[in-house]
Inverse folding.
């Protein structure tokens, strides 16, 4: 999460409003992000310009130069698209702090229908939990309150292998994370808290997932190589197991609230969920296998040829044959070559496959692929498919079942025969908080963040020393207004201090940008609210001690 170490970060807590740009802040600017005007309550702007390329590295210093890249480059969807479907959205959703998702609709639909759903996130106990982690704690609590089975886990294996922490430190921090999570409203009786090292079921699942994961894949996703230690790789399959863990009892839509740096993990987990399945279900047009892109072309050929106005009635219409589709695609290729279009390899392979199938008629169908099914399960599926079907060595084609129905059927048979039947996990992504000193909020730079363990006075002081988006003089500020979108203090209001009060967040924003608010008073108000928050939170942490001690979770690791 947002606690990476960045060499060269300027950690000086004291920075007046006038020294912006004097220090080596180019890095910081790139990682700067803002919430847009809360009166619009949207997430579509507020990003730095001229930024470098976005990299998503779970263990590196992921800077997100421009959140919009994440949509185009990585296929994360905009949260705005699903926001209207969220009943009583959390303020982090309303204010665009939660900006992206994958497949979140399916979780919302389940919650809406009172069907099983889950939320899970994990925390590396590398330092104190801070206000950046609070976002995720809040997200878990929110989903729990809406009926999701919620899970909070301590990624201690990861902290040990990827960050080299020893077990005493890990135990101490683990305790602190769990106390804050409970203090913020997580109900450990309703949900589940665990640590990776202590969860046998999880590790068994990790082992099974390891069977489906190979080194070259980890190389391409995470840049692992010959020098990567095995425990680090093990921590990856462990995280994959974390993400699928809520589905061990039964498959259910599961949301993983995380920062975008964790997206590579989410993508791999979605892939593995499918790979673990007994059966895959796809559309198909002929007996041979085609990949999704080839299928797309074949579908186009089929559509074009079958709707050709041939003489004669539907009934005696000649079927479209594979070879004709091959010719059609080849003609298209020629036409496209004239205007320089590309994508030739897919087309060529599709043409080749169609030619090889010769006179076989093209006919739309639903295909069940045998991925990891036992022989028994495969036979049972054959039995279970009603209507016209054709059975091959590694797949079964059904001519009467729609995709959705086929998917349900495949899962049912899989579950009956001891498979997991995983659904692809969903995710939601929140923006990283800006550090109080500008740049990234980092666990390793105390002045950059407010720890949930900081005493109220320390919290107060840190806010008072924070960088702002203010102008050089009060006069200029009155004239031009402050730059709330560039201001870590405004972020504190939007992400935390204003809590559910949109009207308050909007007021701060408008007074700032309208020049009515000056930084001194604004920081004073924020500092006081922060001190109040910390005091309250720490009281609740004290109460949470008893709850935590009553849980079956071992916080005293007996290892060297
Ligand atoms: N890798 C995460 C981090 O760096 C921690 C984590 C472990 C996690 N397992 C998880 C996060 C499962 C989400 C879901 O903080
Ligand atoms: Fe930031 Fe407040 Fe100053 Fe505006 S007035 S720039 S929100 S500190």
């Amino acid at each position: 999460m947002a606690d990476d170490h960045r060499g060269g970060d300027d950690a000086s807590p004291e920075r007046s409003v006038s020294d912006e740009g004097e220090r080596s802040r180019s890095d910081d600017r790139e990682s700067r992000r803002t919430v847009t005007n809360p009166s619009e309550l949207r997430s579509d702007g507020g990003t730095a310009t001229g930024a470098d390329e976005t990299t998503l590295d779970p263990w590196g210093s992921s800077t997100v130069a421009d959140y919009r890249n994440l949509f185009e480059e990585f296929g994360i969807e905009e949260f705005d698209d699903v926001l209207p479907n969220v009943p009583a959205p959390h303020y982090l959703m309303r204010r665009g702090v939660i900006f992206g998702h994958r497949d979140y609709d399916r979780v919302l639909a389940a919650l809406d229908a009172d069907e099983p759903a889950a939320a899970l996130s994990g925390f590396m106990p590398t330092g104190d939990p801070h206000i950046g982690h609070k976002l995720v704690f809040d997200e878990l609590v929110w989903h729990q309150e809406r009926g999701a089975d919620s899970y909070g886990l301590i990624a201690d294996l990861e902290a040990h292998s990827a960050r080299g922490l020893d077990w005493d430190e890990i135990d101490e921090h683990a305790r602190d994370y769990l106390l804050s999570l409970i203090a913020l409203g997580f109900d450990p009786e309703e949900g589940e808290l665990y640590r990776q090292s202590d969860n046998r079921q999880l590790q068994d699942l990790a082992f099974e997932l390891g069977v489906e994961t190979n080194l070259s894949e980890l190389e391409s996703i995470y840049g692992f190589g010959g020098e990567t230690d095995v425990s680090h790789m093990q921590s990856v399959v462990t995280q994959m197991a974390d993400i699928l863990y809520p589905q061990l009892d039964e498959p259910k839509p599961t949301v993983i609230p995380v920062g975008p740096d964790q997206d590579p993990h989410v993508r791999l987990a979605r892939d593995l969920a499918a790979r673990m399945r007994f059966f895959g279900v796809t559309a198909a047009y002929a007996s041979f296998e085609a990949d999704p892109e080839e299928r797309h072309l074949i579908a186009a050929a089929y559509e074009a040829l079958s709707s050709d106005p041939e003489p004669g009635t539907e009934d005696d219409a000649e079927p479209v044959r594979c070879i004709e589709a091959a010719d059609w695609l080849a003609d298209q290729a020629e036409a496209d070559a004239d205007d320089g279009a590309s994508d030739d390899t897919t087309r060529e392979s599709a043409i080749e496959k169609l030619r090889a199938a010769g006179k076989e008629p093209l006919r739309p169908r639903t295909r069940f692929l045998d991925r990891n099914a036992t022989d028994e399960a495969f036979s049972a599926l054959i039995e279970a498919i009603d209507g016209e079907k054709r059975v091959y060595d590694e797949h079964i084609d059904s001519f009467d079942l729609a995709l959705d129905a086929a998917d349900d059927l495949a899962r049912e048979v899989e579950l009956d025969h001891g498979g997991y039947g995983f659904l692809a996990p969903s995710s939601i992504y929140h923006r990283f908080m800006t550090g109080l000193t500008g740049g990234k909020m980092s666990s390793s730079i105390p002045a950059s963040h407010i720890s949930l363990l900081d005493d109220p006075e320390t919290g107060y002081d840190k806010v008072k020393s924070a960088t702002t988006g203010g102008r050089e003089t009060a006069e200029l500020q009155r004239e031009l207004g402050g730059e709330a979108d560039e201001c870590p203090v405004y972020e504190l209001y939007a992400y935390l201090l204003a809590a559910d009060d949109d009207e308050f967040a909007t007021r701060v924003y408008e007074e700032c940008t309208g020049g009515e608010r000056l930084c001194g008073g604004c920081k004073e108000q924020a500092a006081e609210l922060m001190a109040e928050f910390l005091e309250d939170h720490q009281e609740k942490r004290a109460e949470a001690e008893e709850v935590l001690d009553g849980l079956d979770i071992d916080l005293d690791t007996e290892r060297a």
In short: Residues 468-470, 482-484, 487, 489-490, 512, 517, 519, 522-523 surround iron/sulfur cluster (ligand 2) (CB under 6 Å).
